[in-house]
Amino acid sequence: MILTFSILLILSSVLLIVLVLMHKGRGGGLSDMFGGGVSSSLGGSSVAERNLDRITVGTAVIWGICCVALGLLFTYS
Q1: Per-residue pLDDT of the chain (77 residues; tens, 9 = 90+)
Q2: Is this prediction's pTM over 0.70?
Q3: N or C: less crowded end of the chain, CB within 10 Å?
Q4: What is the Cα–Cα distance from 60 to 34, expressed in whole angstroms?
């Protein structure tokens, strides 16, 4: 059981890193300080961005569940 959650944690961690890096910058970060925030967001988010948001949140929930489950398994086993 611990091995299953460990593998799932590693896979969800890598997927979460990739998904977060795929998001479009929304400004206000460090890149704006050096002139990188020239683009403006006209028209809101597209369907692809909303789906990417949903997949990212789902992956983050799986990641959090794996962390809690591994913590409980290591504590009580």
Answers
A1: 999 999 999 999 999 999 999 887 766 555 555 655 555 555 556 888 889 999 999 999 999 999 999 999 999 98
A2: yes
A3: C
A4: 30
Q: What is the dihedral of CA 47, 48, 51, 56, to 10 degrees?
A: -140
Question: 36 is written with which tokens?
Answer: 């990188």
- What is the Cβ-side half-sphere exposure of residue 59, based on CA atoms within 13 angstroms? 17
Q: Which burial class, exposed, middle or buried, applies to 12 when counting CB atoms under 10 A from its CB (0-12, 13-18, 19+)? A: buried
Specify whether the CB–CB gap between 12 and 63 falls below 8 A. yes
The residue whose two tokens read 């799932």 is 8
